Task: structure prediction
Amino acid sequence: MTTPTTQTTPTRTFVEGRYVPAGPWAARKIEEQVQHLKGRFRPGEAREARTLFDAPGDVADQAAARALLTAAIGPKVVFHRLVLSPGRRAGVTRLIDLRTWTRLLLMDLGHTLGQRLVWVAAVHRNTAEPHVHVLLAGAAVRTRWPHEGKVLGVELRTPHYALLRERGDRRAAEIRALNGDGTAA
Result:
């Protein structure tokens, strides 16, 4: 007789991304997606307060979020729409931890790309796993030579998504260690 084995889900950062190509619909798409960040609720779903945030702190309101994104529309891409989650077993569920985790991930991505990224995000808890919706502007200032200071398009490729997954796991472990729960790798 064999004993059943328990399948454990590894902590693995979930990353999903799409982009909106540049075109005459840019302003409308930004409006729709900022509205989604702030709150589209399913019938019967608890209406939680969703505060928009970016790298420096909270974003005042939807108009400020739209202005940030509209000022950084890229030549090919209006914005990238990302969904990030540290994973079911990551132990990063508090609002402040999810915001810190998101900021660290996007800082890592910006460093890798050599660009000062412009983005707006909101934490959503409308599923079994808390997750973060991010609108990443399609253009950003280059921070490294040879095009330092020049505004260039933000292009996310398969290796960038892999980087977000790997760094997401690492950053979740760092946050768990800072919280003192003893589960950090």
Notes: The radius of gyration is 18 Å. The longest helix spans residues 158-179. The longest strand covers residues 77-85.
